[in-house]
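User: Let's play a game. I give you a shape written as tokens, and you guess the letters that built it. Ready? Here's round one.
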């Protein structure tokens, strides 16, 4: 029987009041709960002792001796009350307030340690934050909570200083994403921020934990970014493996994370971890999947801005577009822009302009590097039999790519896309072995006929040739679910492993199946961590192992391969 009940019995039997003078900070460590935390604690006590603390009393507050008191008063002859004050849990009997215990003891006893700790209980914003489109002077925050409504703002400041600046406030509606843009920031600077949330119908704000981000690095500075591909979340993926990979990503505090696609999967599976191949049939189903994947990304996205590249299973495919626009391609494009942050063209980012721009291909400079994200699907019309020439960047994206590469003097140029444009097997497979063909390399699949001038009249050169001409350093691609590092004409071709793979020993099979004949070949799961200095680039394959898989040879977070390229 809890001690409170014992004390209450004592009170009734002897009328002896164990009153203490409420002065000074007592209790360890003098907790100051938020109103929602206090309310949750009171709720638990009411549930246990409804005969004394009749449920339904409102939580009130007042200031006493420099500390805020949260309390409830209960009707009836006993004059019962509950309060939190100065690190203590108090109850009132007759007209006496009596200190029951330290708050953390009360929390432990009535709530199992959950009332005072969980964000949802204390009324703080318990949804997810997705940081995106960081620039040299700002960043976008996208908020989403399934069940909370209220008013949100953020307080922010340079790291190491007080979060003294406040953003404007935005209205959060349960189940609807909302964005907030911060501007006027200093370039090349680390910032901290916290979310202040005022739940609907309440007069108080509750602050979240501190998070952080970095504005665009200047050309002379060093930084780290991370890359993943093909999380899939299908029958060959493991949620815990994916979450452990994301935890590994977060540990390095990269400036941003690039996802190479086959993440939302709505072209193949309507629901996550499903065995059945059933594309989403309406926009609500697509949105649901984007919300689910957002939940996975939430491990990192309050602290690591996210860039998305489309995969072939996202649904944003040229061959699935209809003239009416009410199709999976458009549902996916809209969901991506709604639940994540698509970099806007103009200013810091370049890319597709105009009102219909999807923000699916874009470029920016960060430190000594140019970053280019490509979309090889939206403009492609796939034909039966998988003619590689049917895959294309489209004239607009190609012209922009050429101008972007030619216009950049960055010593390092990185290209990100799900698969090569064309690829092998009619399934967009392969790395350097596929680079000779179609729009990427200019040749037909017979390996001798160079149809590029006929197939792409007026275009300067095949994509790989363009990359060689303009000094592209690395092509990061996914789609084939393994780690392969290769090189062709001075360009690193990096196939990025799955962050979530169930099978952790299938690299040789996949390499054979997808025609990888050269390079360093390793199995999933894990991600790439890339450090860029003004003089060199170091890429590391950070392997993920679940606790039960770890041995002396298999440590979660170990580096399974590392390569370095120097400034030319
Ligand atoms: Fe793929």
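Assistant: Ready! My guess for every position:
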């Amino acid at each position: 029987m809890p001690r409170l009940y014992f004390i209450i019995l004592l009170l009734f039997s002897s009328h002896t009041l164990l009153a203490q003078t409420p002065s000074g900070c007592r209790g360890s460590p003098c907790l100051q709960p938020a109103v929602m935390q206090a309310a949750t604690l009171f709720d638990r006590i009411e549930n246990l002792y409804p005969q004394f603390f009749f449920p339904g009393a409102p939580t009130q507050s007042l200031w006493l001796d420099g500390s805020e008191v949260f309390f409830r008063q209960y009707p009836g002859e006993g004059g019962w009350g509950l309060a939190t004050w100065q690190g203590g849990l108090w109850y009132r009997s007759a007209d006496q307030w009596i200190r029951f215990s330290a708050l953390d003891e009360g929390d432990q006893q009535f709530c199992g340690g959950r009332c005072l700790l969980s964000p949802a209980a204390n009324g703080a914003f318990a949804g997810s934050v997705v940081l995106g489109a960081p620039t040299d002077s700002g960043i976008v925050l996208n908020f989403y909570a399934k069940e909370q409504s209220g008013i949100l703002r953020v307080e922010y400041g340079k790291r190491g200083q007080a979060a003294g600046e406040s953003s404007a406030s935005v209205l959060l509606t349960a189940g609807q994403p909302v964005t907030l843009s911060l501007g006027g920031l200093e370039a090349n600077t680390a910032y901290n921020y916290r979310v202040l949330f005022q739940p609907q119908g309440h007069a108080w704000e509750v602050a979240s934990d501190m998070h952080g981000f970095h504005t665009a690095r200047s050309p002379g500075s060093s930084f780290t970014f991370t890359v993943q591909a093909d999380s899939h979340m299908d029958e060959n993926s493991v949620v815990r493996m994916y979450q452990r990979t994301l935890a590994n990503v977060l540990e390095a505090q990269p400036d941003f994370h690039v996802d190479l696609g086959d993440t939302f999967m709505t072209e193949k599976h309507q629901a996550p971890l499903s065995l059945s191949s059933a594309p989403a049939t309406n926009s609500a189903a697509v949105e649901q999947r984007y919300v689910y994947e957002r939940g996975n990304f939430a491990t990192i996205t309050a602290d690591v801005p996210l860039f998305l590249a489309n995969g072939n299973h996202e649904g944003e495919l040229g061959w699935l577009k209809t003239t009416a626009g009410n199709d999976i391609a458009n549902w996916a494009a809209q969901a991506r822009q709604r639940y994540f942050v698509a970099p806007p063209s103009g200013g810091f980012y370049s890319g597709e302009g105009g009102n219909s721009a999807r923000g699916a291909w874009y470029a920016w400079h960060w430190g000594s590097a140019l970053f280019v994200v490509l979309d090889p699907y939206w403009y492609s019309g796939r034909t039966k039999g998988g003619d590689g020439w049917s895959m294309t960047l489209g004239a607009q994206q190609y012209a922009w790519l050429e101008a972007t590469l030619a216009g950049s003097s960055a010593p390092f140029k990185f290209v990100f896309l799900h698969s090569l444009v064309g690829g092998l097997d009619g399934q967009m497979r392969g790395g350097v072995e596929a680079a000779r063909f179609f729009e990427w390399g200019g040749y037909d699949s017979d390996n001798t006929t160079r149809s590029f001038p006929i197939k792409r009249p007026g275009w300067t050169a095949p994509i790989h040739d363009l990359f060689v001409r303009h000094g592209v350093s690395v092509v990061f691609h996914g789609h084939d679910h393994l780690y392969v590092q290769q090189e062709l004409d001075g360009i690193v071709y990096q196939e990025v492993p799955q962050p979530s793979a169930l099978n952790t020993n299938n690299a040789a099979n996949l390499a054979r199946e997808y025609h990888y004949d050269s390079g360093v070949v390793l199995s999933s799961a894990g991600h790439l961590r890339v450090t860029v200095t003004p003089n060199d680039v170091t890429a590391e394959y950070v392997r993920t192992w679940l606790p039960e898989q770890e041995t002396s040879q298999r440590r979660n977070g170990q580096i399974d391969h590392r390569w370095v390229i120097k400034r030319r």
